[in-house]
Design brief:
Elements (H helix, E strand, L loop, with lengths): L8 H50 L1 H6 L2 H9 L7 E8 L4 E6 L17 E4 L2 E10 L2 E11 L1 H53 L13 H106 L4 H29 L6 E3 L1 H18 L3 E5 L7 E3 L1 H22 L8 E11 L2 E10 L6 H4 L19 H11 L3 E7 L3 E9 L26
Parallel strand pairs: 7-9
Antiparallel strand pairs: 1-2, 1-5, 3-4, 4-5, 6-8, 9-10, 10-12, 11-12
Helix pairs in contact: 1-4, 5-6, 5-10, 7-8, 8-10
């Protein structure tokens, strides 16, 4: 149940008026009812007393002469009064001279022994006793028992009338209180609605309506004056806020322009520094490759002669033993490998002489297919899985296909060696992943080919020397340390990029980026049926 403080003002006023008026009406009705009871009882007692006095006067002669018949005639006259239940005349010795009984019972004839000159209530009746006086001497007593049921009826009727009046008056009070409370509640509720409206919408231009000059009117005047002050203050604050926002926007724009200029200068400076570092690194690498080329040129001349001899002898074996399939197969394999060595030598000579070689537009997927057809036999023998993600329709690149095949072959051979080092036997992680796709970097479009393995990885302290000539992590008997250096030179010669990501003991990932051939270009040149030029395992780092 809600506390009286939480009841709305309208209901609170009605309740207060109802309680006050109801209490007043209840007290007034109770007082009126008690007054009626007193008046009725007093009137009835006075009536009984008067009746007893009349009987006492009339009974004086019969008592004096002890005439019972005359005394009964006096009492018989009481039959006209239906409320008289009992009447009797006693002599001064207390003997009953005559009696009147309405219900014909004599049980109460000798029961009336009340004090004289008094009346008293006995149950639902009133007993009145009066002395009979003759010549100043008391000669007997008259007793009358009067029925009070008529009084109960009158009291009940009076109570009913009083209750009806109370109900009607209460209803009238409630109706009046409902109308009268509006004089107080309506202005207060309107003031509350205005306060809620201002709170909800923040509109301080709204004003409360004044209904009179009483205390509520004074409250409304004060409320409206407060709204005027708030509205004036908000207008001033809004004006200052607009000026402040203009200043902030102006200063912010100045700062933004200065920041953009600073960013541009920093970006240009960083770009210039990065470009300078890249050029310096490329220059150092080219110088290293030039040194390698000089050395390789001399070595290549020394290798060419024995290679040509091997090729000639292998061809003689093929020609002379054409009917022996096993010997022919071995001889053709020798020819195939010596031709590949010959191409490597020619590439080394090209590096050493810095000759401009012919480049064509090619599809990177075709270059990869040709490379994979060669490497599949090797990796299958080592139980290595090739995981390929090479979508069709990649943009064409301008390259020397056999040189790019040589780079791919070198990267896959290195991946194979790393996997064999970490997993000598079979393992589900023993796989080489080759993926290709188009990227945008440094404002240019590239075709990126990624060769990834989960082998032994590359230590961070040797990563910067990975593309240096003659640098290798293997023994000199296993590798000369030229594979990645030559591959790096080939990629730079194509205007591309060769980067590496690696975590020791986790993975190694090489990214080969070649610029997309700008149109108009001739159609992509198909790869020849000859085996591509590639480094041997001895050239791996």
């Amino acid at each position: 149940m809600r506390s009286l403080r939480d009841i709305p003002v309208k209901q609170k006023l009605i309740l207060i008026i109802f309680v006050v008026s109801g209490t007043a009406l209840l007290l007034a009705s109770g007082a009126a009812f008690l007054h009626n009871v007193f008046i009725l009882r007093h009137s009835l007692a006075h009536e009984v007393t008067a009746l007893a006095n009349i009987v006492a006067v009339n009974a004086a002669a019969p008592l004096a002469f002890r005439d019972g018949e005359a005394a009964r005639e006096v009492l018989t006259a009481l039959g006209a009064e239906p409320r008289v239940l009992l009447a009797c005349i006693h002599d001064k010795e207390g003997r009953v001279l005559a009696a009147y009984l309405r219900d014909r019972r004599r049980d109460d004839v000798h029961a009336a022994r009340e004090p004289r000159h008094q009346h008293a209530a006995a149950g639902r009746s009133l007993l009145e006793s009066r002395p009979v006086i003759l010549d100043g001497e008391e000669i007997g007593t008259v007793y009358i028992r009067y029925d009070l049921s008529a009084l109960d009826t009158l009291l009940a009727r009076s109570a009913l009338v009083t209750a009806a009046v109370l109900v009607v008056a209460t209803c009238a009070a409630v109706a009046l209180s409902w109308f009268l409370q509006r004089l107080i509640s309506v202005p207060i509720l309107q003031l509350t609605d205005v306060a809620k409206l201002i709170t909800r919408h923040g509109d301080y231009s709204v004003r409360a309506e004044k209904h009179g000059d009483d205390e509520i009117g004074v409250l409304i005047d004060g409320f409206n004056a407060m709204l005027n002050q708030i509205q004036t203050r908000d207008a001033e604050l809004q004006h200052h806020q607009e000026r402040l926002e203009e200043q902030v926007e102006r200063r912010t724009e100045e700062l933004r322009q200065a920041n953009e200029e600073l960013k541009r200068e920093i970006s240009e400076r960083e770009s210039a520094q990065n470009r300078r570092r890249e050029l310096e690194a490329q220059l150092r690498q080219k110088q290293k490759l030039a040194s390698v080329g000089t050395l390789a040129g001399g070595v290549a001349h020394e290798i060419n002669n024995p290679i040509n001899g091997i090729m000639n002898y292998a061809q003689l074996i093929v020609d002379r033993h054409a009917d022996d399939e096993r010997i022919t197969t071995y001889a053709e394999e020798i020819l195939h490998e010596t031709e590949r060595v010959s191409r490597i030598v020619r590439n080394l000579l090209a590096f050493s002489r810095q000759e401009a070689q012919q480049s064509n537009v090619a599809k990177i997927e075709d270059v990869l297919d040709a490379t994979l057809s060669l490497v599949q036999t090797i990796v299958r023998r080592d139980r290595i899985v090739l995981d390929l993600d090479i979508p069709a329709g990649l943009p064409s690149v301008r390259c020397r296909s056999q040189q790019i095949q040589q780079v791919f072959m070198n990267l896959m051979t290195n991946a194979r060696d790393a996997l064999n080092e970490r997993y000598p036997g079979h393992s589900p992680d023993k796989k080489i992943r080759v993926a290709a796709g188009e990227i945008v970097s440094s404002g240019k479009r590239w075709v990126r080919t990624t060769v990834e393995d989960h082998g032994s990885g590359i230590a961070p302290d040797i990563r910067d020397r990975l593309f240096d000539p003659f640098f290798t992590t293997k023994s000199r008997a296993e590798s000369a340390g030229l594979g990645l250096a030559i591959s790096y030179g080939i990629v730079l010669d194509h205007g591309g990029r060769l980067d590496v990501e690696s975590e020791l003991g986790q993975f190694t990932r090489f990214h080969l980026d070649l610029p997309i051939a700008e149109p108009p270009d001739e159609p992509a040149a198909p790869l020849g049926n000859g085996a591509p030029s590639c480094t041997s395992e001895e050239d791996s780092p």
